[in-house]
Amino acid sequence: MSLQPLQVPGGPELLILLGILLVVFGLVGRWVYRDAKSRGSDWAWQWGVGIGLLFFVGLVPGLLGLLIYVTVRDDVSSEP
Q1: Residue-by-residue DSSP string for 38-61
Q2: What is the reported pLDDT for 12?
Q3: DSSP code for 75
Q4: Which of 3, 21, 24, 36 has the largest CB neighbor count within 10 A?
Q5: How much is the pTM?
């Protein structure tokens, strides 16, 4: 009787999961960028990239960054 190797998820499963997470983090970053841009922020791309990177670092830092963004963002500017 031979021993069977442990069935640990590897290559394809982890790549698919990483790809899905990257897409979700990118979409959150894009939403933050578009929201900041629509509010007239000069820092729109920094907010978008920063939030996306924070989510890539971890869920908690990403959620904290998103909470900070939602707290400090300005109302929609009335200027043309």
Answers
A1: HTT-TTHHHHHHHHHHHHHH-HHH
A2: 78
A3: P
A4: 36
A5: 0.76
How would you class 29 by CB atoms within 10 Å of its CB: exposed for 0-12, middle for 13-18, buried for 19 or more? buried
Terminal-to-terminal C-alpha distance of the chain: 78
Instruction: State the DSSP code for 36.
Output: H
Q: What gap in Å lies between CA 18 and CA 16, rounded to an integer? A: 5
Q: What is the pLDDT of residues 30-70, one digit of tens each?
A: 999 999 999 888 999 999 999 999 998 999 999 999 999 99
Rounded to whole angstroms, how far apart are CA atoms 61 and 74? 22
Contact 12, 23 (CB under 8 A): no
Could you give the CA distance from residue 76 to residue 80 in angstroms, rounded to a whole number?
11
